[in-house]
Amino acid sequence: MTKEPKTIDDLQCDATRLHGVLQGLNLLLDEVTGATPLQNAIHALSAQGEDMADVLANEIDQLSAGMKK
Fold it and tell me: 4, 13, 30, 37: most buried, per Cβ within 10 A?
């Protein structure tokens, strides 16, 4: 069984969902009291991933807009 290649819109949706998942993780981590150094590291990595997913979603959006011209 072969999968159809993803479209630009599919990739945009995936990047947006990834951003949302990481944002949710950050919100959960914000609820932790008395965070350990490990939890702080996880929070920092998750925040960096959220930023990267946001950049990716924006770049895919710009690519998509350029293809529609």
Answer: 13
Amino acid at 18: L
Residue among 24, 18, 5 nearest 58 (CA):
18
User: Are the beta carbons of 54 and 23 closer than 8 angstroms?
Assistant: no
Closest by Cα among 18, 2, 11, 5 to 53? 18
Residue pLDDT, tens place only, 31-42: 877 778 888 888
**Within 10 A of 50 (CB to CB), how many other CB atoms are there?**
19
The DSSP call for residue 34 is S
**Contact indicator for 53, 18 with CB cutoff of 8 Å:** yes
User: What does each C-alpha distance from 47 to 3, 43, 44, 56 come to in angstroms?
Assistant: 32, 6, 5, 14
